[in-house]
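ESCALATION

Customer reports they have been waiting on this structure for their group meeting. Please prioritize. Original submission:
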Amino acid sequence: MATEPVAERAPAKINLCLHVCGRRADGYHLLDSLVVFAGAGDRVTAVSAAGLHLTVEGPESAGLSAGRDNLVLRAARAMEVKDAALGLWKALPVASGIGGGSADAAAALRALSRLTGRPLPNPEDVLALGADVPVCLAGLPARMRGVGEELSPLPPLPPVWLVLVNPRVAVSTPQVFAALERRENPPVPELPPSGWPTATALGAWLDQLTRNDLEAPARRIAPVLGDVDTALKATAGCLLARMSGSGATCFGLYADVAAASDAARDLRAAHPGWWVTDTTVLT
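Update from on-call: job pushed to the front of the queue and completed.
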């Protein structure tokens, strides 16, 4: 149990690919996805206090409720914590396909476990918070299958950098799934056991053998995503451009920090209304 405030990072979750492989009788979709985490992210703090409450701040906090439905407070209730002051510093766009809410919930679980000494909830309760919460709680590069509960580690990843771009449009996840024309798609192919030796090799493998099945329906809902894809691909050194999750955030993959930094600078200058950040992949 901690007597001082504790803090946990909530890194952005990036779906390098996302295959929709079926649908269960209860309506949940079966997914197959390669997930990594970025250096960019939110931050959750926790300190002992009378009652349970949440303060939300940060550049992306506008419009985000601190009410009981916030995933940070839902995570606290899953831990059965009733006396804590929680803080959420929001740096990632809300509902943008990079697992911000799920990462926040996972960070809250870790922070409250450290603060109170209580164990983390059982896997079923973690999954009940959201399909991405288990992988965010693990916080390591993983292959995610089923409805989010089946996790296995990825082979070794090379150093790789990202540029994340959100065009500031809202894309509803249920609406994207409803617009999906085909729900029975092939899974991710067998992964190379020794991993990918370079970022170029990783980008080529992803480009040739994988996809995001939600990208086409998301583009029909928000055609600007096509503009984001075109803009990313036009930057020097972009090895792959793709949408993450159900959107609207897209990412570009780069082999070195200079290329990613230059691409982000150019994209900000050309599209001042977009949210753009360059970051690394955490390994």
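Sent to customer with the following note: The chain is about 30% helix and 30% strand.
Escalation resolved.
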